[in-house]
Structures are given as C-alpha cells and as structure tokens.
Amino acid sequence: MLRDKTAFRAVSEIADGFLDLLFPPKCPFCRKILTRPGICDDCAADLPWVDDRDAFRVIRGLYCAAPLQYAGAARRAILRFKFGGHTAAARAFGATLSACAAERYPGMFDAVTWAPISRERRRQRGYNQSELLARAACRTWATRPEALLVKTRDNPPQSGLRDASARWANVAGVYRPAPNAHLRGKRVLLIDDICTTGATLCECAQCLRDGGAAEVYALSLAMAGQ
Ligand SMILES: [Zn+2]
Q1: From the CA of 42, how far away is ligand 1's center (Å)?
Q2: Does residue 137 sit within a domain?
Q3: In the chain, N or C: fewer CB atoms in 10 Å?
Q4: Which residues contact 100 (CB under 8 A, 6 or more apart)?
C-alpha cells in the first residue's frame, strides 16, 4: 500500500513538473506567476482567512468548515474558478483545502467526495468545480475522491436564489447515492466550493447518511456570512 502511494506520488510529481513547464503556476488570487503552485506571500497575508474563533459552523447538525471567507479577493478568485474556466486554480485551492481538513478534521474521515452537479450543468460548464477541488485536495494525500452521489434533477442554480428558504427548497430531494457507492459505515469528507446557507451540503450529507454513511463532515473553500 505504502509503495503504491509512493509510486502514485512520484508519477504525479513528474506530471506536475511537466505541466509547470507548459503552464507556469499562478497565484489563483492575483494571477502572479510563481515558481511552484500555491498562493503568493502577499495574498496569503491579505486573504480573508476564517480565524480559529469561527472554525466551524454547525448547520442542522452538520459540521461545516472552510479556510476562507467568501469575500474580496477570495470571492473574485472563486467566481473565476467556478464560472470563468480558471480550472488551473484547483491545485492551489486543493492544497488549501487539504491543510484545512487536516487541521479541523484530523483522522476523522476515510472517504472523500464532492457535491455533484447535474449532467446538463456539467455539459454547459465542462467541469464540476467541486469535483476538481476534491481531486486536488486528495492529491496531497496520494488518494482519490469517490463519486458517492449523483444529482438527479437540473434545478436552478443556488447562486441565483437570494432567499434562504428558496435555497433549501431548491435542493430538496435532488441527490441520491451513486449506483454501486459503498457507503455503509464510512466517514465521509464532503467537499463543495462555497457554503452560503449550507443547504446543498446538508442535503448531500443527509443523502450520504441515508445511504449508510456513519459520519459526514463538510468542507468548502469559502464560507459566506462570516
Ligand atoms: Zn497572489
């Protein structure tokens, strides 16, 4: 197992080195070119990090953590990542997420998944930003996330709904466990891009629990309203 992980990491690092030559890593927040993927020192000092006091929000019994507040440069970078095709930012975001998970949920999960989007939305956008985040976070642990959920309805985007009750109603019943997902007894880290009301995360978490997951912990890149 250890040897497999070492080999996996070595292959990943060679692939990353090759990609760095073709596409030099940039700070996802200010777009400055960097020698290695990550966040530049200026942005790291200025970003709206969630401080220890606000380490968690508990929404309807679900622990939700995020490294960043959804504001300022963090908000702009996430919008570019989500809607502007800036998928290269996933590597730096993934490292930020894995550091946050290690701090807030140490040894508390044994599977990682993401909030799915509908097939129609995926076709339009070309990618699921939350899946990219989960994959990037997992690379630092030399593992892969699992597609444990599917979205069964192409509901209107949560970002277009201002009212909290409309957001909760919009996601009710739109997820189900993926076919062949092994959930029984698993402790799942659920990754999404932004936590606003927590409706998407709570609905996904409930679906995972209904499918047999023992515990679910939510992690998003940014949290609104902190
Ligand atoms: Zn920067």
Answers
A1: 6
A2: yes
A3: N
A4: 65, 66, 67, 219
